[in-house]
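Q: what sequence does this backbone want?
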């Protein structure tokens, strides 16, 4: 088991294209308290500080492996509905 704060410190890597995704910004939790999706801060950094671009909602069932330093996600950003 791990804490959400530990998950927020890990890199999220998309195994579809090898791209690094943004940091955890929020979570979607259902009425039973189960994590349904993670919201990752989208876009690139501007001047090294500010992020611009859209956030990405990654369904929890798309997470393939949670490692010590990174989380591997199988996510096709083209199929995201919004």
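A:
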């Amino acid at each position: 088991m791990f804490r959400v704060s530990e998950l927020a410190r890990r890199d999220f890597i998309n195994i579809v294209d090898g791209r690094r995704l943004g940091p955890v910004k929020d979570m979607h939790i259902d009425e039973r308290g189960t994590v349904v999706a993670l919201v990752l801060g989208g876009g690139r950094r501007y001047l090294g500080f500010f992020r611009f671009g859209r956030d990405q909602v990654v369904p929890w069932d798309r997470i393939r492996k949670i490692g010590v330093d990174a989380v591997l996600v199988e996510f096709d950003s083209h199929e995201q509905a919004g």
